Amino acid sequence: MEYELNLVVILALVGAGLVSGFINTLAGGGSMLSLPALMLVGMPPEIANATNRVAVLLQSLTGSSGFNKQGMLERSAIVPILVPTLLGSLAGALIASYLPSVVLKPVLLTTMVIMALVMLFKPATIVPELGTEPFSLAERPMAWGGMFVAGLYGGFVQAGVGFILLAALAGGLRYDLVRSNALKNVCTAALSVVALGVFVARDQVLWVPGLVLAVGSMSGAYLSVKFAIRASQRTLKWILLVMVLLACGAALMSS
């Protein structure tokens, strides 16, 4: 497939990656910027959706490493939450690889609207108070389903998956937002590996623009971890709400 890649486009992709990497690591919705940026290069939606996973994988690894170095990553929780997430991701990626791209927008919009309504009217459902003791998947079996759905959505379409993962981790398992973001980055990296494998097998990934976007995304993720460690829970909650509302607006305008 032919696509345009000159200095202006490279700088635009790095810039979009920087902002999207910061937003994705801290809350979610960064792909609302990176996906349109890739489509401006000349990619159809399904190719942009696949190529975007290169940057998402690398930014998630950067974010996970940063949170781990700060002692904010609950290592003991990683394996249990990855099992349903990866199973869902494989199913979602297979669905996205074969379904027409027109299906992506209504799924994204519906998800964002539901998330925004919950954040506005029942914020405690998503954001637990500081000091709340988190649950394990064994203690809350329904959270297993939440992680599977998050993986399913993430495999299907990357945009907005951070919100779904945060809803499952903070809302379902009651981790605070910093630790939820740390685990969210691990889950995103893992499901991105699965999804990327499917898209590569289907020859839907354009590596050069994907890696250019990743340069900015990894820088954004690094800066985001530094900010998240210093920010208050209240600040993180408002950032999350604003990003959900912006994601709803972006989805509405593009529909």
From TrEMBL:
Lineage top rank: taxon: Bacteria
Main location: membrane
Membrane disposition: Multi-pass membrane protein
Localisation per UniProt entry: Cell membrane
Any one GO cellular component localisation term in the record: plasma membrane
Pfam family, one: TauE
Record keywords: Cell membrane, Membrane, Transmembrane, Transmembrane helix, Transport
TM regions (residue ranges): 7-27, 77-99, 106-127, 147-170, 182-200, 206-223, 235-253
Family according to the record: Belongs to the 4-toluene sulfonate uptake permease (TSUP) (TC 2.A.102) family.
Protein name as annotated: Probable membrane transporter protein
Species per Swiss-Prot/TrEMBL record: Aestuariirhabdus litorea
Organism classification: Bacteria, Pseudomonadati, Pseudomonadota, Gammaproteobacteria, Oceanospirillales
